[in-house]
Specification:
Lipocalin; globular; about 240 residues; 18 strands; 1 helix; mainly beta
Length: about 240
C-alpha cells in the first residue's frame, strides 16, 4: 500500500467512525468494589436520558436528560431535569464521543458504552409527553407546553419515564427498563423505579395503538390501577 492510498484509507476509516449515529441505547457497567452500577444512555432524534442504577438490586442512583443535538463528534444537551444536581436545569452541557463498531467512548472520562440498540425494532421509538388520560370515564387533556412534564423516552428496546418541572427544576419520579411491542401489545420489564424499589423485576403488559400521531395506552399499573392514557410525540 503506497503512502497516498494509506492516507486515504485512514481518512475514510476515521470518517466512518465519526459518522456513525449515536441514536439508540447504550450501556456502561462500572464496578465500584461493592456492586456494579449500570448507566444507560438513551438518545432519540432530539431528546436523551442518562440514568444510573444498581445492576443487581435495581436501586436508583440518578438521572438527567433533556434535548440534544450533535455536531461533528460533539453532543450538546440542554438540561431539562437532573435528579442529583437540579441547578444544572436550563444549562447546556457538551461532550465529545467516538464510536467504533458497537463501542462509544467519551474522551477524558472513564466511560465506555456498549450499544444496546440503534433505535430499532420498537414501534414506539422516540420521546413522548403525556397529553391526556381518562379518569372516572372522563377524558382529561393535558397541555404539553407547560413546565410540568411527564415524558416517556424509548429506544428500540429500552424505555424510561420521568416526571419533572423545568421551571422549578424539580425532579419528581422516574422508572425504566426494557420493553417490546408485538401485535398491539406493549410490555415493560422494570429494572429501576426511583420511588419504590419493590417494583423492580415486574413485567407489565398494556394494549397500545397509534392514531393521529398519538400513542393510546391502556392497561393496569403495578398497583393494579386502571390506566387509559394518551401520549403525544415530542418534536
Amino acid at each position: 500500500m503506497n503512502k497516498a492510498i494509506f492516507i486515504l484509507f485512514c481518512i475514510l476509516t476515521t470518517f466512518e467512525i465519526m459518522a456513525q449515529s449515536p441514536i439508540g441505547a447504550w450501556r456502561a457497567d462500572i464496578d465500584n468494589g461493592k456492586t456494579v452500577l449500570r448507566s444507560v444512555l438513551i438518545l432519540t432524534e432530539n431528546h436523551s436520558t442518562f440514568t444510573t442504577y444498581d445492576s443487581e438490586s435495581g436501586e436508583f442512583v440518578s438521572t438527567s436528560g433533556g434535548s440534544w443535538k450533535v455536531e461533528n463528534n460533539t453532543i450538546t444537551e440542554l438540561i431539562e431535569f437532573d435528579s442529583k444536581n437540579p441547578e444544572r436545569v436550563g444549562t447546556k452541557s457538551s461532550f465529545d464521543f467516538i464510536i467504533k463498531d458497537s463501542i462509544m467512548t467519551i474522551p477524558d472520562t472513564n466511560l465506555t458504552f456498549t450499544r444496546i440498540d440503534n433505535g430499532t425494532p420498537g414501534d414506539l421509538h422516540g420521546a413522548w409527553l403525556m397529553s391526556g388520560r381518562t379518569m372516572d370515564g372522563e377524558i382529561q387533556v393535558r397541555d404539553t407546553d407547560t413546565p410540568r412534564k411527564t415524558m416517556k423516552i424509548l429506544s428500540g428496546t429500552r424505555f424510561q419515564w420521568i416526571a419533572y418541572n423545568t421551571e422549578t427544576k424539580q425532579f419528581m419520579v422516574t422508572g425504566g427498563g426494557t420493553y417490546k411491542t408485538q401485535n398491539g401489545t406493549y410490555t415493560e420489564n422494570i429494572e429501576f423505579f426511583s420511588k419504590d424499589n419493590s417494583r423492580v423485576g415486574l413485567s407489565l403488559e398494556f394494549q397500545f395503538n397509534l392514531k393521529d400521531e398519538n400513542w393510546h395506552h391502556t392497561g393496569f399499573s403495578s398497583k393494579g390501577d386502571s390506566i387509559d392514557e394518551v401520549w403525544s410525540k415530542r418534536k
